[in-house]
Design a protein that fits this description.
Helix 7 (208-218) runs parallel beside helix 8 (244-257). Helices cover 21% and strands 26% of the residues. The protein has 11 helices and 30 strands. The radius of gyration is 25 Å and the shape is globular.
């Protein structure tokens, strides 16, 4: 309840091994209903895992799925609430006293399938059972399903539809931080984009520098969490002391501010299969020089190019720019010209992060204690002008909790800037007729007051330097006419290697509406 006050979530860990002990209703039901995996003699299999003597739920059995659903209802799983979610660990399955630390190959599953034939599917079936159990945990949710969160260690083709995964028990060493990036790029290309690695390393104790650099890298993992073995020293960011705590805080705030861009990339992954983080060869498939590069990557279709520091003591990074385009430092707008290699300063408090010209990046700049508290916050749009003089970007939003988006309850906008016309426009990407459902109208009404509070144009033309205002017009819902107003405008001239930029202050247009800013 205390967590829910700040819209925070709690994730419980539930493994497929059930403690074999007296007076434990869960294992009693598992046995009496005969829903556990069997040994070669067709008796309930007993092995050893975290609780000691254990039995394993046979998630290949449809009746086991039905039973598993009953265990997670709020009135059955005492202490849980609507902000409680699940993590399925050890679901390969891991068996401490088994051959190769797993089940005997001649164990028997539902339908008399031997474990040797279905081992790689085991984690998928268990996560599937958990996902379906979390769709509805009371009568209200039976009528209006909620979107579950499930984290899994074991996975198979199809697991990506149901949750997140991480790369397992890594170590608090620099080489494991370095290895995490090509691992996650491979998973994204292979079709499991919601992937991450344990920030700080699971085993061992990271130095403060390593912990800081790992949080900076983790801010660009699709699945971002800190995790460690119970015997390691505590390493919460607030224990690190300055300057480390402050630097980690800035990395966390960067992640939260860019959540609109991340969520849009997640939506694209869920609808097209495109990776959330993308290697060079995915974005620039005709550039052979970039094929072997696996330590820098793009975030979705945003044009954000990141190369986290993974080497101890490093003070700079060399980034490879594949195309003939201008790239700008995300933080100070320093301009770099591709193609070629560029050395970027990277002291401990800096994440090498560039913006590729030609993109528009949505973000939210107000720090909050959770993403839930950001729901009604205004947006900032960063327009990054490229060589063509144009820029484009998209934004996808929905309630983040339900399946109402399937009935049109979402916002999907395209932002387009043209130097030729001197205008920035917002266009609807939702198919015609999508917004007519009751749920779509309700969501649209709930978001009507969520607006754009700032537009930053990086690489602004020098011809704008005398401007003090711009014209903003917004089309009212259900109308073809628009009202026009003047809003304040500030131009900042080029300063050495830093590009000129301009700021439209509080245009006040709704994020879900059609509008135009004329420069």
């Amino acid at each position: 309840k205390q967590l829910d006050g700040h819209e925070r979530k709690l994730v419980y860990i539930i493994d497929p091994h059930i403690k074999n002990t007296d007076n434990y209703p869960v294992v009693d039901e598992l046995k009496s209903k005969d829903l556990a995996t069997h040994n070669k003699d067709d008796n309930i299999y007993e092995g050893w895992c975290w609780p000691g003597s254990s039995h394993w739920v046979d998630a290949f059995n449809p009746k086991a799925h039905d039973w598993w659903k009953t265990l997670f209802r709020y009135d059955k799983f005492k202490g849980t609430a609507k902000n409680s979610w699940l993590w399925n660990d050890m679901n390969e399955p891991s068996v401490f006293n088994g051959p190769e630390t797993t089940m005997p190959k001649d164990n028997l599953h539902h339908g008399q399938w031997e474990h040797r034939d279905v081992h790689n599917l085991n984690g998928l079936t268990f996560v599937n059972a958990t996902y379906n159990a979390l769709l509805a945990r009371d009568k209200e949710e039976e009528k209006h399903n909620v979107r579950p969160f499930v984290l899994t260690r074991s996975f198979y083709s199809g697991s990506q539809r149901m949750g997140a995964m991480w790369t397992g028990d890594n170590q608090a060493i620099w080489s494991h931080l370095e290895a995490s990036i090509p691992m996650l790029l491979s998973l994204n290309i292979a079709g499991f984009p919601f992937a991450g690695a344990d920030v700080g390393g699971f085993f061992g104790n990271p130095s403060k520098e390593l912990l800081t650099r790992w949080y900076q890298a983790g801010a660009f993992y699709p699945f971002f969490r800190g995790h460690a073995h119970i015997d390691t020293r505590r390493r919460e960011p607030y224990l690190a002391g300055e300057p480390y705590t402050g630097i980690i805080t800035q990395a966390l705030r960067l992640r939260y501010s860019l959540l609109p861009a991340w969520y849009t990339a997640f939506h694209e992954a869920s609808t097209t299969g495109a990776p959330i983080i993308r290697p060079q060869y995915y974005v620039h498939p005709s550039d052979e020089k970039g094929f072997a590069i696996d330590d820098q990557f793009y975030v979705g279709s945003t044009g954000l190019l990141a190369k986290p520091v993974t080497i101890e003591g490093a003070e700079s990074q060399e980034l490879y720019l594949a195309d003939k385009e201008t790239y700008y430092d995300y933080f100070d707008f320093w301009a770099y010209e591709g193609p070629g290699k560029e050395k970027v300063a990277a002291p401990l408090d800096t994440i090498p992060l560039l913006m590729q010209g030609g993109h528009i990046i949505p973000r939210r700049d107000r720090p909050r204690r959770s993403s839930g508290l950001m729901k009604w916050d205004p947006f900032t749009l960063v327009v990054v002008i490229g060589h063509s003089g144009d820029a484009e970007g998209t934004l996808y939003l929905d309630d983040g909790e339900s399946f109402d988006f399937q009935e049109g309850a979402y916002i999907h906008r395209k932002f387009a800037f043209s130097t030729a016309t001197g205008s920035l426009m917002s266009e609807d990407l939702a198919p015609a007729g999508t917004s007519t459902s009751k749920k779509a109208k309700a969501y649209s009404a709930s978001m009507a007051q969520v607006h754009v509070e700032k537009v930053i144009v990086v690489g602004a033309p020098s011809t704008w330097k005398s401007k003090a205002k711009v014209q903003v017009s917004e089309t009212a819902s259900g109308s073809s006419s628009s009202a026009t107003k003047d809003v304040p405008f500030e131009f900042v001239a080029k300063d050495g290697g830093k590009a000129a930029y301009a700021v439209v202050k509080n245009p006040g247009v709704a994020i879900g509406a059609g509008w135009k800013i004329q420069f």
